[in-house]
Amino acid sequence: MDTTQRTDQQRSADRRRRELLEAADRVVLRDGPQASMNAIAAEAGITKPILYRHFGDKGGLYAALAKRHTDALLDSLRAALDAPADRRERVESTLDTYLAAIEARPQVYRFLMHPAEGGGGADQGFDVGKHSAPLLRRMGEELAQVIEERVDLGPGGQQLARAWGHGIVGMMHAAGDWWLGERPCSRAELVRFLADLLWGRLAAAGDRVGGPGF
Amino acid sequence: MDTTQRTDQQRSADRRRRELLEAADRVVLRDGPQASMNAIAAEAGITKPILYRHFGDKGGLYAALAKRHTDALLDSLRAALDAPADRRERVESTLDTYLAAIEARPQVYRFLMHPAEGGGGADQGFDVGKHSAPLLRRMGEELAQVIEERVDLGPGGQQLARAWGHGIVGMMHAAGDWWLGERPCSRAELVRFLADLLWGRLAAAGDRVGGPGF
DNA sequence: GTGCGATGTTACTAGCGGTAACACGAGTCT
DNA sequence: AGACTCGTGTTACCGCTAGTAACATCGCAC
After folding, report:
1. Cα-based angle B190, B30, B131 (whole degrees, multiple of 5)
2. Are A1-56 and A66-201 the same fold in CATH?
3. Residues of A in contact with B87 (CB under 8 A)
4. Name one GO molecular function term (chains A, B) (predicted).
5. B127 CB neighbour count, 10 Å cutoff
6. Residue A151 pLDDT class (50, 70, 90 cuts)
7. Of chain A residues 15-54, which have a CB less than 8 A from chain B?
8. Which of A31, A158, A166, A190 should one mutate to test binding to chain B, selecting the residue with the greatest count of B CBs within 10 A?
9. Is B2 within 7 A of strand C by CB distance?
């Protein structure tokens, strides 16, 4: 039958694709985002043109690679976000989940956040701006949806939820990036700091008196 | 005299350097971060090796270029941050200053945030992670300092201020990036949304009832 | 005039992303 | 059986990049 034939081929191609992605994963995790297509092909035991037949170009490969990790991270975040607990608990647990993820696999994190697409040759027309950090965007949209579903924001709440979604994700990301680089405190402390910020402690704190010069 | 001689030379070299930076600026703003050294040299009316004598490598040129814009942006932010007004007003004016800046010159913004260093050839040893988005880091540290100086955070306030500095900057950045791409609302609205978020409106809002399915 | 240092050039290397052209093995049709 | 197609794989190449070496040239002190 024609269908079974096509299915067989497709299955085989999918398996191959997964193998290639795993090889690419190993190389990217070892060499960083500037891993070359040659190196990836060598790691997979094949040569370049096969990679190009499967993924089109380097951007396609990287997008597929990023999608895997992004999906995995988003799954764990969703679990924390949807837990049956009160809001503060959910916020803290989501922050902690994210920080634990980037702490456990900083290389993956670096790859997702700094794809460093600018290759060498023909990808001149690549629009860096539009493609930048899709993980952040996806997390922002996801969070926005959860906020809109579960928090009563009154009229105009949809735009507000989206702004907050992206804003909170950015806060988490930047603070996490700084924390991962300097490790100035424990993970739990940072979680508390950020949750406190979101809980309005900045507005509630008093002005400092006797400060330097003002 | 030896000193005057050296000073003359140095002055001339500095002037040349500035001219080169301005040419690089034009090209980067036109072609995006993946502008080639050849194109920059051509725009400056010279050839590549001179660029390399002045800036070492592409990273050096880009760092010098980024420093200029970063310094300029930080100056305007400092002005908003240090204004003699109450805290909410200062926060809003700082957010607005930042958003106005990225709105006015999105190309500059793209360049600063997505340097896309991965060139082609020999910069394999480049550590992307360490060099990533220095503007965000500098803004974060700057804001942390202001927070620590002007807000009474009690014991352990220094770490808290730094976490908040980086977190707030990240919030501003991610929300601004999203806003710049989609323009879902006016600048003033976004400023109010984010300030509301920092003012604890997330904690104060009620749970939504009768939402979809939960 | 003569050396010397800065400024500039041309011509090159090595490596990148990406592609065209060719080679082989398995299944299908006649 | 033998020709035909099709997916998989290769080698060899293109145009481009960042970066460098070697050579030319100008201005200036001595």
Report:
1. 70
2. no
3. 202-203, 207
4. transcription cis-regulatory region binding
5. 10
6. very high
7. 32-34
8. A166
9. no
**What class, spelled out in words, does domain A66-201 have in CATH?**
mainly alpha
Domain ranges of chain A: 1-56, 66-201
Backbone dihedral angles phi then psi of residue A209, each to the nearest 5 degrees: -110, 155
Q: What is the pLDDT of residues A48-101, one digit of tens each?
A: 999 999 999 999 999 999 999 999 999 999 999 999 999 999 999 999 999 999
The reply to whether residue A170 touches residue B171, judged by beta carbons under 8 angstroms, is yes
What CATH architecture is B66-119+126-200? Orthogonal Bundle (1.10)
- Rounded to an integer, what distance in angstroms lies between the CA atom of residue B18 and that of residue B13? 9
Q: Which tokens sit at A182?
A: 């300097």
**What architecture is the A1-56 domain classified under in CATH?**
Orthogonal Bundle (1.10)
Q: How far apart are CA A135 and CA A58, in angstroms?
A: 18
Q: Nearest-CA distance from A100 to chain B in Å?
A: 17
Instruction: Establish whether the CB of A122 is closer than 7 Å to any nucleic acid atom in strand D.
Output: yes
Instruction: Give chain B positions within 8 Å (CB) of A205.
Output: 151-153
What does the pLDDT look like over A170-188, one tens digit per residue? 999 999 999 999 999 999 9
Supply A146's token pair. Answer: 């959860």
> How big is the A-B interface in CB pairs under 8 Å?
223
For residue A130, give the chain B residue with the closest CA.
B181
Cα–Cα distance measured from residue A197 to residue A192, given in angstroms and rounded to the nearest whole number = 8
The residue-averaged pLDDT of B88-107 equals 95
Question: Is B9-56 in CATH node 1.10.10?
Answer: yes
